[in-house]
Specification:
Number of domains: 4
Radius of gyration: 36 Å
EC number: 2.7.7.7
Oligomer: single chain
CATH topology of the largest domain: Rossmann fold
CATH superfamily of the largest domain: 5'-nuclease
Helix content: 40-55%
Structural class: alpha/beta
Family: Belongs to the DNA polymerase type-A family.
GO biological process, one term: DNA-templated DNA replication
Largest sheet: 6 strands, mixed
Catalytic activity: DNA(n) + a 2'-deoxyribonucleoside 5'-triphosphate = DNA(n+1) + diphosphate
CATH class of the largest domain: Alpha Beta
Strand order of the largest sheet: 3-2-1-4-5-6
Mean pLDDT: 89
Number of helices: 39
GO molecular function: 3'-5' exonuclease activity; 5'-3' exonuclease activity; DNA binding; DNA-directed DNA polymerase activity
Length: 994
DNA sequence: CCCCAACCGTA
DNA sequence: GTACGGTTGGGGG
């Protein structure tokens, strides 16, 4: 540093408190995290860094530092134990912001300085004097009177909130004394907030007058007897010693042992991406935009940083991948298994506060009932532009598409709706406005003679789409949707890629997994007590169903705008609860990022060979027909074999076979199990029925149905994944379900040969080996299981060996089969009844097995008991990543209902943790492939398996990338006690790849 | 036309 | 014993 340089010193700690009280507390992140002080801080820093010359500071800094108090205990407490003793704890909403402001400082590439045992003011004083000595100028960003003693011709202060420079004249004007006498003045007056004693009856005015008269404090104390006013004289004489202590307390140290030299405070250029990542994480949309513009950074390409939030004493939910996104060191410490039997941790104060806030915000619109008559239909570009400008101004918009099909791969855009509220930026409950923009509605009926014309007064699609794209692709505007994956796909097919979004369905899924469903209508009922217009009341149903482009525009407006309105209200109600319950990481790491990943998988689809299916269908038809003839012969009459009722009547009524089980409704059961038992007794007919069922099942469900799902344009099959329809966190697949394609026997596996790669490519199938048992070994921490997985030995054989004392070498297959059934049973929340069923043995024998198993693996029993107890206690269980799965019926008085819930509660953390792991792998795999410059495309997920389509030339390079990402998917959030193992191979069809 | 039960394919 | 979705038959409206 040299003469002429200009050092800015920001009083960070002082700023936090001032900004916190100056900016409305409703200024929060969308998940409820209070960020008002952080917001003010960032805006102030940005202003000073870019614009200081245009403020009343009038100069641009060359050096810059932000200074913080380290802790409340400093050397002053040794001097005077009562110093700052009357400080109360900071407000709960402020606590998490202390850490965030330090993160902000670092994001701005600024030194963040704090020293144990010293106050920020001492550090500031030290640097100010050092710089001044060199001949540099100093501006202290603070308006705290405690710092005014530092002001000189070269050292100034700046009140950033009032944009006011504080120099010598300003100090004199305010306090009546020049800066160098501020110490004496403060010593005389004391400071009630810091608990610094002063002289009773002496305030700033009197103190200034006395100092004017006597020159300085020492002279005043020496000649106090000359003071004319009796009371004042007595008070000063009585408190002379205390005043000397006060003077020491208020005198700032200018020799604080600072680590960083002045040179180190030199201002560096902003790191645009780093800063933007932080600002996005804080959801400061306006500042993000400004920084992006100023640094020439493409903000849309930057992911929000993972900023750890500390609520104070108690942990605040699992902090997934702390440091991962910020590029810091990984934290591979093994997470403890859920200690469900431990005393419950006290709810963090911050969490309580946030929950209260969430409830308050949920009720924000209570006095603003949903009124469909207020919805607007936007029919001209000027109005649309105004709405989009408003959305960009508030940074928040609910969005919903209306299309002519429920299938996102076929749907054409018919219109879209928007809902806005200005609540976020004003900190007050705003008015919700919602509108529908019809684009492709048609007039009249779609008969053969016309009626296909566009209805009048609609904005042309070609003019609306670019405007919509500007909004949806703007990373500074948070788009809120319900089941966004659908809208994301529709818009992607229209050339628009949504960036920055929230999905109310996924928020609900994270908050209330296991409680109800997460569709918009049930959510509206539960959270808003409002019943939205039913789709069928707008578009009809069944035979009278019309596509949405035939719906009259006024009706469409009421329906569509309401959807956006409700979605926005749901978001306001639910989003804050994520943070309040410590579930933000689950949502942001396991749910939200999967939306574009799944959308791309669905869009890609998989190639299915029509010819193979057609040939198989013929073979199956022939086989079934032959069996039908034999069945009618054996039964002595023709009947509908596919009707379990008719079949039961024939078998157990007419033919008088020994009936096995009965169904819930009292009918004879004709399940495969019952028929197999009869077949085992040598009966022909049941055998034929079982075979016939298999063939007709394959035919109707697969070979006949799949061709109907081949997309007319892509010629591929595009399944749809549901992110929020299982309780455990698994995905589900439908239309068609590609997660239940046969594999277990040769006949069924033929179906898989129809799933093929395009020429020049192959399919890679990569599946986790025994992932659920590995998760079990991890969470229950079972030494033998951990050892077996570490050594890579056959887990079922090991179990059998432990239980029955049989050596693994030369083990009879039946022994291993039983152990395998027990291992599976454990994962499913074993019961003697179920195991007996599975193995075809007596309940008592199954019970003995279980008993023996628990003797050998007592940790498993402990885990199961602890899981049940925890579920009973809290109403939910958790996966290793903190996903909650609720079991509201686990306390049912009905023993079978209760037992069922207990088994499900035992299974859920295991199945759910495995599901979370593959979710993480799926989120990471695409960036990893891009990084490796590979073109593999992920197509399908089948719970523990991922299917890719890969160019022939890249297969060898791709396999290890996929395996690596999958095997390490739990890291670094969780370092498992057992390794994950993935098998992967490539082939031209799914059967051979698997 | 809608819904449920039974059955069966997958992990 | 856990978690799903699809097909069929069949009852009720």
């Amino acid at each position: 540093m040299k003469k002429g340089d200009h050092l800015f010193l920001v009083d960070g700690s002082g700023f936090i408190f001032r900004a916190f009280h100056a900016i409305p507390a409703l200024n929060r992140k969308s998940d409820g995290l209070p960020v008002n002080a952080v917001s003010g801080f960032c805006n102030m820093l940005w202003k000073l860094l870019t614009d200081a010359r245009d403020t009343s500071v009038g100069v641009t800094p060359t050096h810059f530092a932000v200074i913080f108090d380290y802790s409340s205990k400093t050397f002053r407490n040794e001097l005077y134990p009562e110093y700052k003793a009357n400080r109360s704890a900071p407000p709960e909403d402020l606590i998490p912001q202390f850490g965030l402001i330090r993160h902000a400082t670092k994001a701005f590439n600024l030194p963040c300085i704090e020293i144990e045992g010293y106050e920020a003011d001492d550090i500031i004083a030290t640097y100010a004097r050092q710089a001044e000595a060199i001949g540099a100028d100093v501006t202290i960003i603070s308006s705290d009177k405690d710092l005014m003693q530092l002001v000189t011709p070269n050292v100034h202060m700046y009140d950033s909130m009032k944009d006011k420079q504080i120099s010598i004249p300003e100090v004199i004007e305010k306090w009546g004394v020049p800066p160098e006498k501020m110490i004496d003045l403060q010593a005389l007056t004391g400071d009630s907030t810091d608990n610094v004693p002063g002289v009773p009856g002496i305030g700033p005015k009197t103190a200034a007058q006395l100092l004017e008269e006597f020159g300085d404090l020492d002279t005043l104390l020496a000649r106090a007897g000359e003071i004319k006013q009796q009371k004042r004289r007595e008070n000063i004489l009585a408190n002379a010693e205390l005043v000397k202590i006060s003077r020491q307390l208020v005198t700032l140290k200018t020799d604080t042992p600072v680590d960083m030299a002045l040179e180190d405070l030199m201002l560096h250029p902003q790191d645009g991406p780093k800063l933007i990542a932080f600002l996005k994480a804080m959801e400061f949309t306006t500042l993000t935009r400004r920084v992006a513009e100023a640094t020439g950074t493409d903000a849309s390409a930057i992911e929000p940083a993972a900023v750890p939030v500390e609520w104070g004493a108690a942990a605040h939910g699992p902090d997934l991948d702390k440091g991962e996104a910020s590029g810091g060191p990984a934290a591979p410490a093994a997470a403890e298994p859920a200690k469900l039997d431990a005393p419950k941790a006290a709810t963090p104060a911050g969490a309580r506060e946030s929950e209260a806030f969430a409830i308050e915000r949920a009720g924000l619109f209570k006095d603003q009932p949903i009124d469909r008559s207020l919805y607007e239909t936007i029919r001209d570009i000027a109005t649309l532009d105004r709405w989009i400008a408003d959305a960009r101004e508030t940074g928040l918009v609910a969005f919903d598409t209306e299309t002519n099909s429920l299938d996102a791969m076929q749907a054409d855009l018919v219109g879209f709706s928007l809902a806005l509220s200005d609540s976020r930026d004003t900190g007050r409950p705003g008015t919700i406005r919602a509108a529908y923009v019809p684009l492709g509605h048609r007039s009249g009926s779609d008969d053969l003679f016309g009626g296909n014309d566009l209805a009048p007064n609609q904005i042309p699609m070609a003019e609306a789409l670019p405007r919509l794209r500007a909004l949806l692709e703007d990373p500074a505007v948070l788009k809120v949707a319900q089941n966004l994956k659908y809208d994301y796909l529709v818009m992607k097919r229209h050339g628009v890629e949504v960036k920055s979004f929230d999905d109310t369905m996924l928020i609900s899924y994270v908050l209330e997994g296991g409680i109800g469903t997460h569709g918009m209508d049930p959510l509206s009922e539960r959270w808003l007590g409002h019943t939205p217009i039913a789709f069928k009341d707008v578009a009809g149903s069944g035979k009278s169903l019309v596509s949405f482009d035939r719906v009259e525009i006024d009706k469409a407006t009421a329906y569509a705008a309401e959807d956006a309105d409700v979605t926005l209200r749901l978001w306001f109600a639910m989003k804050p609860l994520l943070a309040a319950r410590g579930l933000t990481s689950v949502y942001e790491r396991l749910e939200r990022p999967l939306v574009p990943v799944l959308a791309r998988m669905e869009e890609r689809g998989i190639s299915v060979d029509r010819q193979i299916l057609s040939r198989l269908s013929g073979e199956l038809a022939q086989g079934a027909a032959a069996l039908e003839d034999e069945i009618y012969q054996l039964a002595g009459e023709r009947f509908n074999i596919g009707s379990p009722k008719q079949l039961g009547d024939i078998l157990f009524g007419k033919m008088g076979l020994p009936g096995g089980a009965k169904t819930k409704t009292g009918q004879w059961s004709t399940s495969a199990q019952v028929l197999e038992d009869l077949a085992a007794a040598g009966l022909e007919l049941p055998r034929r029925i079982v075979d016939w069922r298999q063939l007709t099942k394959l035919k109707s469900t697969y070979t006949d149905a799949l061709p109907g799902y081949i997309h007319p344009e892509t010629k591929r099959v595009h399944t749809s994944y549901s992110l929020a329809s299982t309780t455990t966190g698994r995905l589900s697949s439908s239309e068609p379900n590609l997660q239940n394609i046969p594999v277990r026997n040769a006949e069924g596996r033929k179906i898989r040969t129809a799933f093929i790669s395009t020429p020049g490519r192959k399919l890679i199938s990569a599946d986790y080996s025994q992932i659920e048992l590995r998760v079990l070994a991890h969470v229950a921490d079972i030494p033998q299981l951990r050892q077996a997985f570490a050594d890579g030995i056959d887990i079922h054989a090991m179990t059998a060996s432990e239980m029955f004392g049989v050596p693994v070498e030369g083990m009879p297959s039946e022994v291993r089969r039983r152990a395998k059934a027990i291992n599976f049973g454990i994962v499913y929340g074993i019961s003697a009844f179920g195991l007996a069923n599975q193995l075809g043995i007596e309940r008592s024998e199954a019970g003995d097995y279980i008993k023996r198993y628990f003797e050998r693996f007592p940790g498993i029993r402990d885990y199961m008991e602890a899981t049940k107890a925890g579920a009973r206690d809290k109403g939910y269980v958790e996966t290793v990543f903190g996903r909650r799965i609720h079991y509201p019926d686990i306390r049912s008085s009905n023993p079978s209902v209760r037992a069922f819930n207990e088994r499900a509660a035992i299974n859920a953390p295991i199945q759910g943790s495995a599901a979370d792991i593959i979710r993480r792998a799926m989120i990471r795999i695409e960036p990893a492939l891009v990084e490796a410059k590979l073109n593999a495309r992920m197509l399908l997920q089948v719970h523990d398996e991922l299917i890719f389509e890969v160019e022939d030339a890249e297969i060898e390079a791709t396999l290890p990338v996929i395996v690596d990402v999958m095997e390490n998917a739990a890291m670094p959030a969780l370092s498992m006690r057992v390794p994950l193992k993935v098998d992967a191979r490539a082939a031209h069809n799914w059967d051979e790849a698997h």
